[in-house]
Automatic annotation (TrEMBL):
<feature type="signal peptide">
    <location>
        <begin position="1"/>
        <end position="18"/>
    </location>
</feature>
<dbReference type="InterPro" id="IPR011050">
    <property type="entry name" value="Pectin_lyase_fold/virulence"/>
</dbReference>
<keyword id="KW-0732">Signal</keyword>
<protein>
    <recommendedName>
        <fullName>Pectate lyase-like protein</fullName>
    </recommendedName>
</protein>
<dbReference type="InterPro" id="IPR012334">
    <property type="entry name" value="Pectin_lyas_fold"/>
</dbReference>
Length: 501
């Protein structure tokens, strides 16, 4: 009996650990580690987030050969020195993979009184780690490094087709069209969901309590566009590369598709291994560098190993026309500004199909954040926030399809009706997923119509949120250890890689 008791005591920790393992009712993991998604009564499932980031996660970020190196003078002339080198590489022919070459900024301090601009694809700007430092000198609220193409997304005339299904659920990668005669595999399309008066009424976003400059939502501002590629066609059914992240509902106008072009959007740009710093006059100074790195009108590019200090807004800011961008291994320290709205968005994403991984932020307000009408899927994975001044999550006006996976913060993570904050943010997001995150507290609410939000395995206090009487989100396993898989994103990527190899 004595030996039996000792054996049980020794065995108890492993038994307890085995008992603690649990799986979500929304995503099941089979013995072979493959995932099974459990649909609701309408067929909606948690989306597949595996193909966000650089080239849909299908090829690794490359190491591009250095074609020019420069060293700093330590004066304001450094700005023109770097810009001339960028422009020189921009004039080179691109290779078969779209690269012109890398510009190596040797270690030292580079003074930048204005802004640097990369407006051609195929250019990599690389430093020698923290020893390469670019300083936004003097006054002026500005972006230190601006990476952007030109133009805008344009519908190709005569290609618009109606989606025939009365309801296309979240997570779907196929649907029926009126016809497919003029379509082929590889076509780049927009999946279009119209804004309607009835939808806004049912969402109660025409009834936002008046505040300081509150603007009620209007239908024409919520015509939503999701960039996709056709992967197969069978009869009148098309298959697309990325999941639907907001249901197409007949009662709200259904959906359409059309071919598009984006002349002037650039690609294959990398920013690597360097530090950015802004001069400032005081802890609340706002007349100084605002963004360290800004991307827009760009796709299939990356930011890796960058560090920022003292900028008022962000370390990395991805604009609405940024697509398939990977931001990794980057850190945002000690922003200098007032601590109020429109400031300290450490890693901001307004684009689609973007990935933020292994990032760190301190003293920010909204460290891992999306803006208005952000079209997913997008992912924030394995990121940390310390000394947070506000919350992480969708910030305002209906971001769609974001995964926050293993995010750790000493502040809040919120997905809620923000009401009249700002100029009437209202419902901040839909089909947002918190997976195995840790926070001081979290408010997760479901909008009245058109989708759900999920808190799965969150460690932290559940709070009501700003506004009472909003539908509760889908909570599961709060403060419960042992969620399997520990990372939904990594398991989805593993399954995707297995399928393509």
């Amino acid at each position: 009996m004595k030996y039996t008791s000792v054996f049980l005591l020794l065995l108890w920790p492993s038994l307890l650990q085995a008992q603690q393992k649990w799986q979500s009712r929304y995503v099941k993991m089979k013995k072979d580690s493959s995932l099974v998604y459990m649909p609701d009564e309408k067929g909606n499932v948690i989306p597949d987030f595996s193909q966000v980031g650089y080239h849909h996660n299908q090829i690794p970020i490359p190491f591009v050969k250095v074609v020019k190196s420069i060293s700093p003078a330590g004066t304001d002339a450094d700005q023109q020195l770097i810009q001339n080198a960028i422009d020189e590489i921009a004039s080179l022919p691109a290779d078969e993979k779209g690269f012109r070459g890398a510009l190596l900024l040797k270690k030292g301090i580079y003074k930048i009184p204005g802004s640097l601009k990369i407006s051609n694809g195929g250019i990599v700007l690389r430093g020698e780690g923290e020893a390469t430092k670019l300083i936004a000198t003097g006054k002026g609220q500005r972006k230190l490094l601006m990476v952007s193409g030109q133009g805008k997304l344009e519908e190709i005339a005569g290609t618009r087709l109606k989606i025939k299904d009365k309801y296309v659920p979240v997570g779907a990668k196929s649907f029926r069209l009126s016809n497919t005669a003029d379509l082929k595999k590889g076509d780049r399309i927009v999946v279009f969901r119209p804004g309607t008066k009835q939808w806004i009424q049912d969402l109660k976003m025409d009834q936002i309590e008046p505040g300081n400059g509150t603007i009620q939502w209007t239908p024409e501002e919520y015509n939503l566009k999701f960039e996709r590629t056709i992967t197969a066609i069978r009869g009148n059914t098309i298959f697309i590369d990325q999941p639907v992240v907001m249901a197409m509902e007949e009662q709200y106008g259904g959906g359409e598709i059309f071919k598009y072009q984006f002349n002037g959007r650039i690609s294959e740009v990398g920013i690597e291994d360097m530090a950015f710093e802004s001069e400032f006059a005081s802890p609340t100074d706002e007349d100084h560098g605002w963004d360290a790195v800004s991307f827009n009108k760009i796709e299939n590019s990356w930011v890796s190993g960058v560090i920022s200090h003292y900028f008022g807004y962000s370390c990395v800011n991805l604009g609405a026309d940024s697509k398939n961008i990977t931001v990794r291994n980057s850190k945002c320290f000690a922003p200098k500004s007032q601590i109020t709205g429109g400031r300290r968005y450490s890693f901001n994403n307004d684009g689609q199909l973007n990935l933020f991984v292994n990032c760190y932020a301190s003293e920010g307000r909204h460290d891992y954040v999306t803006g208005a009408k952000v079209a997913g899927p997008n992912v924030f994975f394995n990121c940390r926030s310390e000394n947070a001044k506000a919350d992480i999550g969708p910030h305002h006006r209906w971001a769609m399809g974001t995964l926050y996976d293993n995010i750790i913060t000493d502040g809040e993570i919120n997905i809620q009706d923000r009401g009249n904050w700002g100029t009437g943010h209202g419902w901040s997001g839909v089909n947002q997923v918190l997976w195995n995150c840790t926070a001081k507290s979290a408010a997760v609410q479901n909008p009245y119509v058109s989708g759900q939000n999920y808190s799965i395995g969150l460690k932290g206090e559940k709070v009501q949120g700003r506004l009472k009487n909003r539908p509760d989100g889908n909570w599961e396993g709060q403060n419960q250890q042992g969620l399997e898989p520990g990372s939904l994103y990594l398991m989805q990527v593993k399954q995707f890689k297995k399928q393509i190899n």
